[in-house]
């Protein structure tokens, strides 16, 4: 996968594959993801973003070995919120490993006045050893509302 391409999406999540997957498998997974996102939206009353753009870069390790296993992924995320976003308290970027795992926040809380952030994510196994190069990672921007939702 060429990680230097920009992916524009209309949904709240995007996918960065760390392995080569069959296109049919990707399409089936993407259809399931869109269906799942719609049901999540209906259940929680989330605010739909006008746009959410993610650019990915591979960042080599600082050691001279240049081992691909030690590389990190740098995500550059930028978004535009609707005028109804005054109810937003702060944002977080969340990550899901595979299709069945729970969404977990990564990085720090993002101020509601900010519209972009940058995150470095190791391609090695994380602290919980839950990352598998054969599983896709999904990322989404989550708006936390002032009323606690």
From TrEMBL:
Residues 1-43 are annotated as: Disordered. It comes from the Eukaryota. This is Uncharacterized protein.
């Amino acid at each position: 996968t060429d990680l230097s391409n920009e992916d524009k999406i209309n949904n709240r999540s995007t996918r960065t594959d760390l392995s080569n997957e069959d296109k049919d498998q990707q399409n089936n997974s993407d259809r399931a993801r869109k269906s799942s996102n719609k049901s999540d939206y209906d259940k929680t009353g989330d605010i739909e973003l006008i746009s959410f753009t993610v650019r990915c870069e591979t960042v080599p390790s600082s050691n001279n070995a240049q081992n691909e296993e030690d590389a990190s992924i740098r995500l550059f995320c930028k978004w535009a919120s609707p005028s109804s976003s005054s109810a937003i308290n702060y944002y977080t970027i969340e990550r899901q490993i595979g299709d069945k795992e729970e969404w977990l926040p990564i990085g720090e809380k993002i101020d509601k006045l900010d519209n972009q952030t940058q995150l470095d994510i190791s391609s090695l196994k994380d602290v919980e050893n839950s990352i598998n190069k054969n599983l896709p990672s999904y990322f989404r921007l989550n708006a936390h509302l002032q009323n606690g939702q």
